[in-house]
Task: inverse folding
């Protein structure tokens, strides 16, 4: 649980842009929560990539790419934060 929400819902909130991942957001998390959040972000990223691609809808393509970009950025930030704290998340 992160701030009263399940880790899965936080990962979806990151994808939609409701939650911003930064070191201040990650600081109160313990190693297990950090690892779980990283795994869930990667899982949501895979789910979005697995959805049918909206070839003719430019707005839907833009939204899909923004969601993937937010998740990728969050994964990079979590990886770097964990590395600084010497936490194994893989």
Result:
């Amino acid at each position: 649980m992160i701030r009263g929400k399940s880790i899965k819902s936080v990962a979806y909130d990151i994808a939609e842009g409701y939650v911003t991942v930064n070191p201040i957001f990650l600081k109160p998390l313990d190693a297990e929560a950090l690892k779980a959040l990283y795994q869930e972000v990667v899982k949501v990223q895979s789910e979005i990539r697995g959805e049918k691609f909206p070839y003719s809808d430019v707005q839907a393509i833009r939204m899909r790419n923004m969601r993937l970009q937010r998740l990728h950025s969050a994964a990079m930030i979590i990886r770097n934060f964990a590395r600084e704290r010497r936490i194994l998340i893989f």
Residues 49 and 68 are 8 Å apart (CA to CA).
